Amino acid sequence: MNLSAEMSEFIEVGKKNKDKLYELDYVRFIACLAVMIVHITATGITDYIHGSFPHLVMLLINRSLKFTTPIFIFLSGVTSFYSYRQKEFKYFSFLKRRLTKVLVAYLLWCVIYYRAYIKIGYYTWDINFFITRVFQGTMSYHLYFVIIIVQMYVVGPLLYYILRNTDKKVTVLIVAAVITLLSAEFIRYELSDRLFLKYVVFYMLGIYVTLERALFLSFVKRHKIHVVAGYLITGLAYTVVSYYDMSISTYVWFFFSASSVFFVYYVGLVMKEVFSKYYSFIKLFGQSSYYIYLMHPLVLTVMILYAENNGILSVTKRLILYSATVMPVTIISCLLFTAARNNIKKKKRAKIAEAAS
Questions:
Q1: Which of 147, 202, 262, 307 allows an S-S link to 73, with CB 3.0 to 4.6 Å?
Q2: What mean pLDDT is predicted for residues 306-316?
Q3: CB burial string 292-319: b at 16+ within 10 A, e below
C-alpha cells in the first residue's frame, strides 16, 4: 500500500469515527441495566405489603426505570438506518441482515427456555406448543420485544422513506405519537402488547436522529433542564398512577416513555464525556446487550426457585439474593461470550487480510 492510499484510509476511518454515535453505547448500557433491575424489583412490588415503605421504594425504582422497551426500540431505529446516510438502501438485504441478527439468537434462546421450563415443570413437550410460543413471543415473558422488533424491521423502510422525503419531519413524528398513544390505549386483544403500532413513534424518533442528528442534539442540550424535569415529573406521575391503578395509566406511561428517551439520551451524552476512558468496556457491554436481555430472566427464574426451595421467605433477602446473582452472572457470561466472539472475528479478518496481501 502506498502512502497516499494509507492516508486515504486513515482519513476514511477518521470520518467514520467522527460520525459514530458513541453515546448510543452508553444509552444501551443504561437500558440494559434498567431492564434487569425492573424484573428484579417486580418481586418487591408484588410481595411487599401494599403501601408499606419498602413497597413504595420498589415501585418508584421499578416505574422510574420502566422505559426499557421504548428505549431499545428507539436505539433500533437509529442503528437500523444510520449507515444508509452514505449508501444505497436495499430492502431485502436490509431485512435479511437485521432479521438474521435478531432471530438466530432468539430461536436459540427459545429452545433454551423451553428445555429449562420443561425440566422445571412449567411446560411439557409438545411441538405445536413450542412453535406457537416461538411465533407469539410467549416462551418467556420478556420475548414479546423480539416480535415487536421484527415488525419494525418489516415496516421500518417505509417509515424511513416517509421521514427522509418530507420537510415536515416533526409533524410526522407528532402524528406517529398520536397513533402510538391511541393504539396503546384502545387496541386491546390477547397479545396486543406485541403490536408495533403501540411503539412506532419511538422507532420513528430513532430514524429521525439518523436524519437530523445535529438538530436532535441541539434540542436535547439546549433544553436539558426541561428534559430532566420532564423525566422526573412523569416518572413520579407514573409511580402514582401505578400505585392507585388509575385509568389514565396508559397516557402517563406514554408521556413518561417519551420523556425518558430524551432524558436517557442526554445522560448518554454526559456519560460519553465523563466516562470516555471506559468506552471499550461500554462498547463491549453494548455489543452484549441483546444476549443480556435474552438471558437474565432465566437466571432470575433459577434464583427464584432456589429461594423457594431453601425457604427464603424474607422479601428483602430474596431481593438481595437476586441482585447479587442475576446481574453479575448474566453480565459476566455475556461479556465473556461477546469478547470471545469478537476475538474469533478479529483473527478471521486478520487471516483474510494476510491472504489478500
A1: 202
A2: 96
A3: bbbbbbbbbbebbeebeeeeeeebeebb
